[in-house]
Predict the 3D structure of the following.
Amino acid sequence: MTEKPDNTSTKPLIVCKDLGKTFYTGDIETHALRSASCTIDRGEFVSIMGPSGSGKSTFMHLLSFLEEPTKGSYHFDGRDISTFDGSTLAKLRNQEIGFIFQAFNLLSRLSVWDNVELPLLYDFYTKGLNRSKEHKQRIKDALESVGLSHRADYKAQYLSGGEKQRVAIARALVNNPKIIFADEPTGNLDSKAGLGVMQILQELSEKGHTIIMVTHEHSTAMHATRIIGLKDGILETDEPVENRLFAKDEQELK
Ligand code: ADP
């Protein structure tokens, strides 16, 4: 099985204060995120909700260092990320963050195994190819944790949507990240496959993984333990989930 996350530190994983992002296109300013303040602890499963254009993606891109904020502060695992340069952030992103996207973003001509291996090849150009025993074990463990060990040699293009998303989850897990960001992970799936993906995310959460998921669907958001609501670029609501949904039970009812 995949390693359990190290949640022994008492420092919050994420602390952001008045975080914001304005895009400038010619003379036009777009305040994509006006202000977001929150603290997220290790092991939380947080949904970010809001209507289209409310700033969800921008917020997630800031939290995962894909964009630089234009205002506010952001500490990740106790470190002020504004002090890091681009290459340090890229390394942090590779080693401490796992991503799952709506469109899966697999390399379709590669095998399932090779797709899951990709994040482990980050140092390939500087350190050469190192396919150690430990490296192989990580891929095996990640595939096992999403129930796809039997598909390791399949080309990604021949998988169903639900299987593709499970490969993407395995790829996100392979570096044993501190946090997993999921951007509308069920958006391209039918309801059965979507529940399968939610079940895996809930199992990972049970094991202590920290998950932040963007969704515009309330029923999907209800699988998390906490919902952050954005409106017009402002973090407006932040509440624990009452009557949480459990994908495993929902599937049994189908
Ligand atoms: P959501 O994910 O909730 O749909 P976004 O964060 O994608 O919202 O976008 C918020 C607002 O910022 C939208 O008005 C969008 O058009 C704008 N925006 C997002 N990214 C950019 C960008 N790179 N350049 C200019 N405007 C952007």
Observations:
- The chain has a mean pLDDT of 92.
- The longest strand covers residues 28-40.
- Residues 41-66+85-253 form a domain with the Rossmann fold fold (CATH 3.40.50.300).
